[in-house]
UniProtKB/TrEMBL annotation:
This is DUF4398 domain-containing protein. Residues 121-142 are annotated as: Disordered. It comes from Gemmata algarum.
């Protein structure tokens, strides 16, 4: 009985992964990794288009705020508007310009991430292709 218990304990200890034998995730096959990188690059391209659209929307916001200031300036000059209202409209222009700057900066940061995603894809593509064999060297006539 003791011997059976001892064998069972030793078998369990050997079979269980210890700190030095932790299980590693299975390696990702190159074809799967390449597909993942292609998907990542395509998704990022679409996200870039969204960021460009946000910039367009911010540009429209700046133009709208500027038109509002022009309109209110005429009302202010005619005495039909308080100075505070005009000042508020000028602040709205500044806020719209700041939003535009934020959107442009976001696109620049995103472009850096996209550049590196494309580089990872290119590297993976090149690594998955077999090297080009060298053409035979021309022999010089004797």
């Amino acid at each position: 009985m003791r011997q059976t218990l001892f064998v069972a304990l030793v078998s369990a200890a050997v079979a269980a992964p210890g700190p030095a034998q932790e299980r590693q995730p299975p390696p990702v096959r190159p074809a799967v990794r390449l597909a993942q990188l292609e998907e990542e690059a395509e998704v990022m391209e679409a996200e870039r288009d969204v960021k460009k659209a946000h910039i367009k929307a911010a540009e429209v916001g700046v133009k709208a705020a500027e038109l509002g200031v022009v309109r209110l300036k005429k009302a202010l000059d005619g005495g039909a508007l308080a100075v505070e209202e005009f000042d508020r409209a000028k602040l709205e222009v500044e806020a719209a310009r700041a939003q535009l700057e934020v959107r442009v900066a976001e696109l620049k940061a995103f472009d850096v991430r996209l550049k590196f995603a494309r580089k990872r894809l290119e590297d993976a593509t090149n690594a998955s292709q077999p090297p080009n064999p060298r053409p035979p060297a021309d022999k010089a006539p004797n």
